[in-house]
Amino acid sequence: MTYLVLSLFLFNPFIFGETFKNEYKSSKDVKFIDNLKTDDVYIQDLINELKEDFLSDREDIVELFKQKTNQLKKDKKNEMDELRDLYRSKVKELRKKFPKKIQNQNTPEDNDGIKRTKPLSKDDPNYKGPKSSKNEKNINKNELPSKK
């Protein structure tokens, strides 16, 4: 029970923070119109109408800029993808020109394109992995070619 109360107390600002923030912001931003007061009912109605117009225009601007930022994020992602594809094709062309001279840094030179698990013990460096065939497991070290 104490954990529940403690968690509600700690996470309360994160859960309800956005609504409190919006209420505080809306009351804070319209102070210049709120300070206008008059005894005439007609003029007060005009002031209230101006206040509502201001709030709606402000909300429209906020929505417009949210849409623009979302569109910019999408455009940035698309351009980065295109740039990455362009340079990948340039690297492929270089690899075609110089196939033996270009390797990836994170793969060994004798990589045959198959990812294998690392050996469980350092005594058996020729361990091919748990999915290797039974014939490969029964090979003696004496039968393997020497590394000279």
Architecture overview:
There is one protein chain. This protein has 148 residues and is mainly α. It has a domain at 11-104. Helix content is 63%, strand content 0%. It has four helices and no strands. It has helices at 2-29, 31-34, 41-97, 134-137. The radius of gyration is 34 Å and the shape is elongated. It starts with a helix and ends in an 11-residue tail after the last helix. The model has no long low-confidence stretch (mean pLDDT 76).
Task: Jot down its keywords.
148 residues; mainly alpha; 4 helices
What's this entry about, in short?
The protein has 4 helices and no strands. The chain is an all-alpha fold.
As an assembly, this protein is single chain
Number of beta strands: 0
Shape: elongated
Low confidence ranges: none
Overall mean pLDDT: 76
Q: Please, how many helices? A: 4
What value does the Rg take, in angstroms?
Answer: 34 Å
- From the N-terminal CA to the C-terminal CA, the straight-line distance is 70 Å
Structural class: mainly alpha
User: What can be said about the biggest beta sheet?
Assistant: none
Q: Name the beta content range.
A: under 5%
Query: Strand-and-helix sequence, N→C?
Result: HHHH
Summarize the amount of helix as a percent range: 55-70%
